[in-house]
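Q: Here's a chain of 132 amino acids. Please give me its 3D structure as tokens.
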Amino acid sequence: MELRIQRERSSPDYELLRFVKDYPLATTKEMVIEALRAFWLPLACQKSGRYDREQIRELGRQAISCLQGQIEHLIKVLELSDLKDNRKSDLASLTRAGAATQLSLNSSVPLPPTQSFNRTNTGTDYDTDQFD
């Protein structure tokens, strides 16, 4: 399976893709699959119909644990300790704000699949990242 993502250089998504590509402790593929697993694996397995209820619940527990670890990491690195004090209400607020932000940041441009990972400068305000 192959994935190709294109974003404007001035967008936060572009910075995200560069960060993932240049991260020294894991490959791009590892980082992408880890994030996809945390967000979507339990739901994908549930929809497939190939896994029993307990397997899906375990995948859900693992995904939640991963996401909670990422929340703790963000709180520490971004010095957001005020979120820890009242996390439930703050996380609900962040979820609502995140959904609104996602609408404005989501500028995906569907592109056909490619055959390799490659960063190319297209001479425009876009760079193309290819993940195989």
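Q: Can you summarize the key feature?
A: Residues 100-124 have pLDDT under 50 and may be disordered.
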